[in-house]
Design a protein that fits this description.
The chain has 158 residues and is mainly β. The protein has one domain. The protein contains two helices and ten strands; from the N terminus they run ααββββββββββ. The longest helix has 16 residues. It is globular. It starts with a helix and ends with a strand.
């Protein structure tokens, strides 16, 4: 199964769980869903790891009051200092969000970050995501990564 296929399967599973949310709760909420691959601009790094692209999966609802519930998952694809592939995995619970007038959605919460280098995963890392149909920008703790451009899959805000 391709990575994008795996992410799509994970999102469909999450969507089936979120489908059990009462309809009244969904009436005033905006859904944000996506399974995509995206590329970072040259020179992008996180904690010293040069990054080239990412895969993502997200499924969440944002209420008009600013609360949000759902999941965000991304694998940041990079290269270790030894020149071997290194995947940084981000798995987050969404707690807050808002929808912009431009059709984008910004949401935040806390995540567990696994650097993929054998060190222990770090829980409780604050994250913020701004997602639109063509791009995704991610802030992990105090590190703002440049927006990644979607090249496969999709992100929807409706």
């Amino acid at each position: 199964m391709t990575r994008l296929g795996f992410v799509l399967t994970a999102i469909l599973g999450l969507a089936s769980i979120l489908a059990t949310v009462p309809v009244a709760a969904q009436d005033d909420a905006t859904g944000v869903a996506g399974a995509a691959e995206a590329i970072f601009p040259r020179g992008t790094t996180f904690n010293g790891v040069p990054l080239s692209r990412l895969t993502l999966g997200q499924g969440l609802f944002i209420t008009q009051g600013g609360s949000a519930a759902g999941e965000f998952q991304a694998v940041l694809k990079g290269t270790s200092l030894l020149g071997t592939p290194q995947d940084v995995t981000v798995e987050g619970e969404v707690g807050n969000g808002f929808v912009g007038g431009d059709g984008s959605a910004t949401f935040s919460g806390t995540a567990t970050v696994d650097m993929g280098d054998g060190t222990l995963p770090v829980p409780g890392v604050p994250f913020t995501v701004t997602a639109s149909t063509g791009s995704l920008a991610l802030i992990l703790n105090a590190t703002a990564l440049p927006p990644a451009t979607v090249t496969a899959g999709s992100i929807t805000v409706e």
